[in-house]
Amino acid sequence: MPRPTKCRKVCHFPQVLEFLPSQAGEQKAPVILTVDEYEAIRLIDKEGLSQEQCCEFMQIARTTVQRIYESARKKLATVLVDGLALRIEGGDFWLCDGRATHCGQDGCFKHQYHQKYKKSKGEFAMRVAVTYENGQIFQHFGHTEQFKVYDITDGVITSSEVVDTNGSGHGALAGVLSALQVDALICGGIGGGAQAALAAAGIKLYGGVSGEADKAAEALAAGSLEFNPDIQCSHHDHHHGQEHTCGEHGCGDHNHCHDHH
Known about the structure:
The chain is α/β, with parallel strands linked by helices. About 30% of the residues lie in helices and about 20% in strands. The protein has helices at about 35-45, 50-60, 60-80, 100-105, 110-115, 170-180, 190-200, 215-220, and strands at about 10, 20, 30-35, 85-90, 95, 125-135, 135, 145-155, 155-165, 185, 205. Helix 1 packs across helix 3, helix 2 (about 50-60) packs across helix 3 and helix 5 (about 110-115) runs parallel beside helix 6 (about 170-180).
């Protein structure tokens, strides 16, 4: 019986999920780079980590890192040499929420958020975040500088607090929300990449909402919030509305790993 695949920890979800060659030509199937392969490339080639350091960050064996990294490099070479499109999706991964041991050692802001805003299991029925600016729902998720976070118990808001995003943007914002232990997000416009990042973090999305943040949170608590389940941001990426799949290969036993089909 094959050994179950171990989930790989991903610190930052990709900001862009699809890359297309500028020259139009015959439509060929894109090369699929998994999210965990993307993370190995980010850590080793961009951040300059060794494979040994990479395996510590991703919490997997060095041989696994070597295999993932070699696969990713070969795929990137194929894209460049053959002029193919590249799409990032799938893989066995979980989005870091700041709980990992080394996060505290590295001064990770997600770890700091997790410690500051942690909640006991079952303490709140729901924690909701709203993109926030001057009392209103901020309409561009990727540029959000503040969230207003509400704790809701039995349909009643019991507390709220405005939290800065620490200069994060796009894919990193999902990590902020995960570290805040948010169950749901209320926002205006949001792109496909950010939607996929929220899905990977297990955060329910209530998009296409405008008006006062407090009233929207109260409506959600009362079960009467009107939102657009098919919200598509008119900015940034080119893959709006595409279905995203990740975490498909047996890592559902990890407490932070999610299957999206």
